[in-house]
Structures are given as C-alpha cells and as structure tokens.
Amino acid sequence: MNTTQYLGSILDELRISETISDSDAETLIHAVLEADKVFVAGAGRSGFMAKSFAMRLGHLGIPAHVPGETTTPGFEERDLMIIASGSGETKSLVSMAEKAKSLGGTVAAVTISPDSTIGNLADLKVKMPGAPKDQSGDSGETIQPMGSLFEQLLLLFFDALILRIMEKKGMNTKKMYGKHANLE
C-alpha cells in the first residue's frame, strides 16, 4: 500500500467511533459542566490527547488542569478527574485515580478496558473501541501499531465533547478565541 491508501485505511478504522455510547458521553459532559475544576490525565500519546482536551476546556472558560504541571492546583471534593488510558492499568494513572477518590472527587475513565483497575475505580466510564497496544496491528481490529487507534479516537472524541459543550454553553469559536493564548 502507498501512504494515501494507509491514510484511507486509518480513516475507515476511525468509523468504529460509532460504537461509543452517546449516553456515556452525555454523562461525562454533565460531570464536566458540574465540576468546580476538571483534571485530565493520560500517559504517553494518550496524555497528549488529554492535554489538548484540557486546553480546549480552558478556551471554554472551564477550569481545567493537567496533574504534574507547575500551575496545577490541588484536587478537591467537587472536582472531576478524567483519566484516558487504553489498558486502564497504567500504574501512575491508577495512583491518581486512587488519590482523587480518597479526596472525595469524581473519577471518569475513558478506556478500552472498563473492567480494568482504573475502570473499577471510576464513578463513570466511557468505553472506547480499539485494540490493546500489545495486540494492535495483529488483532485484525486495526492495521495500526500499538495504541494509535485509541489515541486517534481519544482526540476526536474529546473534540466532539467540546463541540457538545459549546452547544450547551451557547459558545462559538469567536467567543472561545478570547481565551486563547496570546503571548506566543
């Protein structure tokens, strides 16, 4: 296959997003809108997708933070921790979920594995389609290596959540742009 054929195959694979529960997505949106602060976490490439979601939440005027960043405030009882983890077993993310629960906050898991450790700690979860990274490319579910399909779906899913939150808040791109970084 050539590059554009691979791209076409990847786009075809992303159609699996239609299996994501709209009800679970709406529950997560409600939790985001009700939280005092939203924290998002992921490891590796999933972490990049989570950070992009935090950025867009900030553009919507929703206090959003990434654990480990210098300016991240403390997590409190009325806060929401959203953890993006394909396996749901990443040790550092399990620790964050446990800590958030111990502080009385809400934990949401966006994961391929809702019955994982993080999934079982979560108050709400969104099951994402995809193959675990140790099987991707070999499972028949995806031609892509490792966790690529999950990571791509995360970005698109988080962007879809942003569009729905924009709709609920009566926001548009022009209003959001006022909160965009302007020192670069």
TrEMBL record:
Keywords of the record: Isomerase
Organism domain of life: Bacteria
InterPro entries per UniProt: PHI/rmpB, SIS_dom, SIS_dom_sf
Cross-referenced Pfam families: SIS
Residues spanning the signal sequence: none
Record domain SIS: where: 28-171
BP GO annotations: carbohydrate derivative metabolic process
GO MF annotation list: carbohydrate derivative binding; isomerase activity
SUPFAM superfamilies: SIS domain
CDD domains in the record: SIS_PHI (cd05005)
Family, per entry: Belongs to the SIS family. PHI subfamily.
NCBIfam families found in the cross-reference section: RuMP_HxlB
Name of the featured protein: 6-phospho-3-hexuloisomerase
Organism field: Metabacillus lacus
